[in-house]
């Protein structure tokens, strides 16, 4: 029995699964936390990877793949040393740079036509503009720009490579043309640093010093789609640090409003996606405010009536990306003396968080991605209140797949594909 491993290096933690390459059965798992910041040195991801795989977790593994949080700006100097801590997808300091870039290219539609997305603070291209403007001395030292999963793959193999899925979230790669747009990189940064080579879906990146085959890796949402085995027409909602709604499509879905990002997937197709900044942590922050555990918060939310007796939470606790309101703060609306109960506050948090994702489903439909039902994954999908309330708020049937690390499983599936040359037929 061959073993393959998959890594999910996401915002809050690294998770690793070791699975049977023939069946996809999970045999071993490891995890380690990341720092809770929006600016993180990549060494922290390597430390977490080492911690998550300690104690022989990878013994006997023939191939491994890495799924990583999308968009983070990792800058390397001419010796391939990290120039500065990475700015993550949820760091909003580049919001003004995004607005400047939209103006520089002639408006949102010009970006949607060029690279399938309209700049917001999350995307790598805006972080590079911010760096060039605010830290010119550091910018001058940048020889190479990669994404979080590319950097981990580089640490494992010494190869500077990426995949089409993660590249499509940079803002300087056209998934429709399958080519970098170095002109847009120059527009943002003043010059075009070296970029990783884009591998095909089953093309290996190289091997580790122990001889383990390493697959191309991909962005965490692309890996989740692979882990769930989504086909064209299928859709999923992930409630992790970010909230995402995405579906698999056979052609690009560009959206000049900027709500939908026309990403590529990890199989050669497309992954139109809407992302919110406020998801599972709305639940944890509300539970902390109420002084209750997550399961007590579930019970409170489920004890309140739909609509929370008129109490509405707009949960923009970390600013917001969709809609593009990077400086927004949250609001609690409709407060009356008789509805200000812990149960209504808990319910309003769940409903408010899910409403942003419901709007995401509408945005996907508006660009021609029909969403008839969704699979609900991510840490927040374990909430009993979320599970019960999601169908009402999202307006579609919701399936809860068996709890699993779907990003890590998708990365493992890609590793098995690279190992055997055939996409695994795991159920
Ligand atoms: N039962 C639960 N109810 C609500 N939130 C939960 C529950 N279990 C986990 N979470 C939250 O889910 C988040 C982690 O989800 P995950 O998908 O692993 O995130 P990421 O991949 O972004 O690191 C954490 O904020 C955690 O507190
Ligand atoms: O920016 C996006 C998608 O465009 C985020 O979904 C990141 O990819 C981080 O994901 P999680 O850590 O929440 O899984």
From TrEMBL:
Residues 236-419 form the Carbohydrate kinase FGGY C-terminal domain. SUPFAM superfamilies: Actin-like ATPase domain (SSF53067). Keywords: ATP-binding, Carbohydrate metabolism, Kinase, Nucleotide-binding, Transferase, Xylose metabolism. CDD domains: ASKHA_NBD_FGGY_BaXK-like. Its EC number is 2.7.1.17. The record marks 8 as: Important for activity. Coiled coil: none annotated. It catalyses: D-xylulose + ATP = D-xylulose 5-phosphate + ADP + H(+). Residues 4-227 form the Carbohydrate kinase FGGY N-terminal domain. It comes from the Bacteria. Gene3D superfamilies: 3.30.420.40. The active site is at 220 (proton acceptor). GO terms for molecular function: ATP binding; D-xylulokinase activity. It is an enzyme of class 2 (transferase). Transmembrane segments: none annotated. Substrate binds at residues 70-71. GO terms for biological process: D-xylose metabolic process; xylulose catabolic process. NCBIfam families: XylB. Catalyzes the phosphorylation of D-xylulose to D-xylulose 5-phosphate. Belongs to the FGGY kinase family. This is Xylulose kinase. The lineage of its organism: Bacteria, Bacillati, Actinomycetota, Actinomycetes, Pseudonocardiales.
């Amino acid at each position: 029995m061959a073993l393959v491993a998959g890594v999910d290096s996401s915002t809050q933690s690294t998770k690793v699964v070791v699975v049977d390459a023939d069946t996809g059965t999970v045999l071993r798992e490891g995890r380690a936390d990341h720092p809770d910041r929006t600016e993180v040195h990549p060494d922290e991801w390597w430390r977490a990877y080492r911690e998550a795989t300690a104690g022989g977790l990878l013994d006997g593994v023939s191939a491994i793949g890495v799924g990583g949080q999308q968009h983070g700006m990792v800058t390397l100097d001419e010796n391939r040393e990290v120039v500065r801590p990475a700015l993550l997808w949820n760091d909003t300091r580049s919001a003004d740079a995004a607005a400047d870039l939209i103006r520089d290219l002639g408006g949102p539609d010009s970006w949607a036509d060029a690279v399938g997305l309209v700049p917001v603070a999350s995307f790598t291209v805006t972080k590079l503009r911010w760096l060039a403007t605010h830290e010119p001395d550091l910018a001058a030292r940048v020889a190479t720009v990669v994404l979080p999963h590319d950097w981990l793959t580089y640490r494992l193999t010494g190869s500077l490579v990426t995949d089409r899925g993660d590249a499509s979230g940079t803002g300087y790669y056209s998934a429709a043309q399958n080519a970098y747009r170095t002109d847009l990189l120059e527009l943002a940064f003043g010059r075009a640093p070296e970029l990783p080579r884009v591998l095909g879906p089953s093309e290996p990146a190289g091997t580790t010093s122990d001889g383990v085959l390493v697959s191309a890796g991909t962005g965490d949402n692309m890996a989740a789609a692979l882990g769930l085995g989504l086909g064209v027409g299928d859709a999923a909602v992930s409630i992790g640090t970010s909230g995402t709604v995405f579906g698999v499509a056979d052609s690009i879905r560009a959206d000049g409003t900027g709500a939908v990002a026309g990403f590529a997937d990890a199989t050669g197709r497309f992954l139109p996606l809407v992302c919110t900044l406020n998801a599972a942590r709305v639940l944890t922050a509300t539970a902390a405010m109420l002084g209750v555990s997550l399961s007590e918060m579930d019970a409170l939310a489920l004890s309140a009536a739909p609509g929370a007796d008129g109490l509405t939470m707009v949960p923009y606790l970390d600013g917001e990306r969709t809609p593009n309101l990077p400086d927004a703060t949250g609001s609690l609306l409709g407060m009356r003396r008789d509805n200000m109960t812990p149960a209504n506050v808990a319910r309003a948090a769940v409903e408010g968080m899910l409403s942003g994702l419901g709007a995401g489903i509408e945005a996907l439909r508006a660009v021609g991605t029909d969403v008839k039902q969704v699979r609900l994954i991510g840490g927040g999908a374990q909430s009993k209140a979320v599970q019960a309330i999601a169908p009402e708020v999202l307006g579609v049937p919701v399936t809860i797949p068996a709890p699993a690390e779907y990003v890590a499983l998708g990365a493992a599936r890609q590793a098995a594909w690279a190992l055997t040359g055939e996409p695994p037929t795991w159920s």
